[in-house]
């Protein structure tokens, strides 16, 4: 039981990092990264190949780089690599004013990366993926029991999640966060006041993908293995559901959403009656997440914890539960009459 | 040299498959102004219907296509009414609509896994007879695919050019506000567009199944980004542009596939998509000036 | 007559075609310093199109726009904004889900805390932020919205949104303020507030160009009036002079 609890809280912490990153992209600035999970995967793979070195760890596998840099640098490299790919893709696609182009490009990137990684053994050992990834403090804790090591990793994951949570909150309260919200609300107005919306979007994408990469790095270190089946493109939507259910734009909402959706849905299926065939559990979960997303967007678009009005005058004011507030136009239109 | 010519031939077949999907997607994208990420799943459903009608029940391939068109057409209209309509009323939020379509894609794909299982269903080829057209060898099925694409897109072109409905669709594609102002019942036209787009998905699904000989739940989704590439290359809402782009994409994919690892074919298509976004974001055939 | 290059803002032979429809044709005028200038004209005269062109939202088919001697034709909105030309919109565009304070704070263009590196280090921008908040409070007071400071932009009435837009534009310390129908939909009680705000601007070196239908309002605040009809300028001068102009009378009567 204790071990189960340690495991579930560790997974929550990692998933909170995912949700925070997506919240910066989708919640703060309003860009739609449909291939978010691909950036998680980039982080995971890069973390693995910068920490595996030449040690086979009992596995025969092919991969690039073969670095063996001290922890936590591999995780950091994972984050930076994901951010770099995200920025590159965004620079190409976001010069357009259409929000859908980035969505299309990220979805395509995720699908193409997936095919290439799965079919090319020399990059990250093909579809099978990488295993035997070194865990932090492995050498020092070689004799520790599973519970003790689990606890150490839990602390590591929570520290990462806490640091990133505080950073996200600081971003939200900073003028940069305000700039991002302004672009989300009405980019034409933001432009009229001398801003370039592209700057806010690139910043949000870069930061969000960095978070995805960090989370991916921690995930592969926790599981010590990561293969294609771990990042099927539609996995992204579990993270989307977390952000939307929790409350788009609200960091605390991302935490709550991650806990409810990611762990709740994944773990509750354990307690399903045995009469349900196991091959239906996965697809059933997919349908459930999809329905949950649409229902929330329709009937409670602000989520369980609505975006708070950023702390002003020393107190916090909640956004009223008012779904009737007008939504801003999303594409730049040259208004003429 | 022979490989090159033969792969151009296969390219035309692949192009026909992409063209049907891209034209259906482009038409709806142009009129409703949001892209449908569940379109791949529409095709998958069409493929299953075609499989059940033609392979399981041994009806003629065309009966399968008509049945698929009916089912996917109805599905599209139903989804528009029940799911999209409430989001479009008032001031639609593009990002929300996009997520709704992706969520639908997730729902449908997983429903297929539950209802149809993840098994590969072998679609029986309508004709395995070999024909030679010049130096290129085609199977009867491949020629059928090309013929179906030409017929379907030709029929749509006639509809767009010569009927009142078609003209209304083109007007809405240019500017929904102007179309409404000039007395067009935009709600009705939108419904018709979803029907036609859904019917194209039905045709596309069967054709896809014929081309790859099998049906499984992610069949349509794995082609979605090729449709997107053709739609963006051709310019949103321009069926002709989508058609020409599909031909280019199909030939590039198959010709390169003859020389490089098949796994990179998709990568190449992605590269083309990125290049188009970089150089001609409004499509290769766009003459419209960019307003700031 | 002031020349194009000396003027505060000059519109020089600007034409705009929309697929064969000529919204603006060969339009030229100069906005002179020290005046509140009003741009009036019947519906479809091309005023709004011209506003878009001036603010950088639209590149004209022909002609140029010059701001303080610098050609701004077809420049990006953001570039024009940074040159001190700030605008409001015909239908008020406030940030609906942001509180009024945030709506105003966006008005200031150069903010230290908007840099990716500095955003996480509040000591580097706290001083400016405090200063901006104080200024925003003043402006809320000035446009009479202090009592609603906890509201979200989208919760205001149409007229209050218009006032918020003006306040947001003033946060930018503009050199030229473009007001697009500042009292359209504004409650008569609030019109006096708008008049008072505009009048106070004169003393602060902020020039105003406004588009308005309400002629009595134009008469109250504008010392220079430009009349447009069918995409071109008919007359310029004070309200009484242009009212007496034969072509102006024809244009208004013709469109009525």
Automatic annotation (TrEMBL), chain A:
<keyword id="KW-1003">Cell membrane</keyword>
<protein>
    <submittedName>
        <fullName>Branched-chain amino acid ABC transporter permease</fullName>
    </submittedName>
</protein>
<feature type="transmembrane region" description="Helical">
    <location>
        <begin position="202"/>
        <end position="220"/>
    </location>
</feature>
<feature type="region of interest" description="Disordered">
    <location>
        <begin position="316"/>
        <end position="337"/>
    </location>
</feature>
<dbReference type="InterPro" id="IPR043428">
    <property type="entry name" value="LivM-like"/>
</dbReference>
<feature type="transmembrane region" description="Helical">
    <location>
        <begin position="73"/>
        <end position="94"/>
    </location>
</feature>
<keyword id="KW-1133">Transmembrane helix</keyword>
<dbReference type="Pfam" id="PF02653">
    <property type="entry name" value="BPD_transp_2"/>
</dbReference>
<keyword id="KW-0472">Membrane</keyword>
<feature type="transmembrane region" description="Helical">
    <location>
        <begin position="148"/>
        <end position="168"/>
    </location>
</feature>
<feature type="transmembrane region" description="Helical">
    <location>
        <begin position="31"/>
        <end position="53"/>
    </location>
</feature>
<dbReference type="InterPro" id="IPR001851">
    <property type="entry name" value="ABC_transp_permease"/>
</dbReference>
<keyword id="KW-0812">Transmembrane</keyword>
<feature type="transmembrane region" description="Helical">
    <location>
        <begin position="101"/>
        <end position="118"/>
    </location>
</feature>
<dbReference type="GO" id="GO:0005886">
    <property type="term" value="C:plasma membrane"/>
</dbReference>
Automatic annotation (TrEMBL), chain B:
<feature type="transmembrane region" description="Helical">
    <location>
        <begin position="12"/>
        <end position="39"/>
    </location>
</feature>
<feature type="transmembrane region" description="Helical">
    <location>
        <begin position="59"/>
        <end position="82"/>
    </location>
</feature>
<feature type="transmembrane region" description="Helical">
    <location>
        <begin position="268"/>
        <end position="285"/>
    </location>
</feature>
<dbReference type="GO" id="GO:0015192">
    <property type="term" value="F:L-phenylalanine transmembrane transporter activity"/>
</dbReference>
<keyword id="KW-0997">Cell inner membrane</keyword>
<feature type="transmembrane region" description="Helical">
    <location>
        <begin position="219"/>
        <end position="236"/>
    </location>
</feature>
<keyword id="KW-0029">Amino-acid transport</keyword>
<keyword id="KW-1003">Cell membrane</keyword>
<keyword id="KW-0813">Transport</keyword>
<dbReference type="Pfam" id="PF02653">
    <property type="entry name" value="BPD_transp_2"/>
</dbReference>
<dbReference type="GO" id="GO:0005304">
    <property type="term" value="F:L-valine transmembrane transporter activity"/>
</dbReference>
<dbReference type="InterPro" id="IPR052157">
    <property type="entry name" value="BCAA_transport_permease"/>
</dbReference>
<dbReference type="GO" id="GO:0015190">
    <property type="term" value="F:L-leucine transmembrane transporter activity"/>
</dbReference>
<dbReference type="GO" id="GO:0005886">
    <property type="term" value="C:plasma membrane"/>
</dbReference>
<dbReference type="GO" id="GO:0015808">
    <property type="term" value="P:L-alanine transport"/>
</dbReference>
UniProtKB/TrEMBL annotation, chain C:
<dbReference type="InterPro" id="IPR032823">
    <property type="entry name" value="BCA_ABC_TP_C"/>
</dbReference>
<dbReference type="GO" id="GO:0016887">
    <property type="term" value="F:ATP hydrolysis activity"/>
</dbReference>
<keyword id="KW-0813">Transport</keyword>
<dbReference type="InterPro" id="IPR003439">
    <property type="entry name" value="ABC_transporter-like_ATP-bd"/>
</dbReference>
<protein>
    <submittedName>
        <fullName>ABC transporter ATP-binding protein</fullName>
    </submittedName>
</protein>
<dbReference type="Pfam" id="PF12399">
    <property type="entry name" value="BCA_ABC_TP_C"/>
</dbReference>
<dbReference type="Pfam" id="PF00005">
    <property type="entry name" value="ABC_tran"/>
</dbReference>
<feature type="domain" description="ABC transporter">
    <location>
        <begin position="9"/>
        <end position="255"/>
    </location>
</feature>
<dbReference type="InterPro" id="IPR027417">
    <property type="entry name" value="P-loop_NTPase"/>
</dbReference>
<dbReference type="GO" id="GO:0005886">
    <property type="term" value="C:plasma membrane"/>
</dbReference>
<dbReference type="InterPro" id="IPR017871">
    <property type="entry name" value="ABC_transporter-like_CS"/>
</dbReference>
<dbReference type="InterPro" id="IPR003593">
    <property type="entry name" value="AAA+_ATPase"/>
</dbReference>
<keyword id="KW-0067">ATP-binding</keyword>
<dbReference type="InterPro" id="IPR051120">
    <property type="entry name" value="ABC_AA/LPS_Transport"/>
</dbReference>
<keyword id="KW-0547">Nucleotide-binding</keyword>
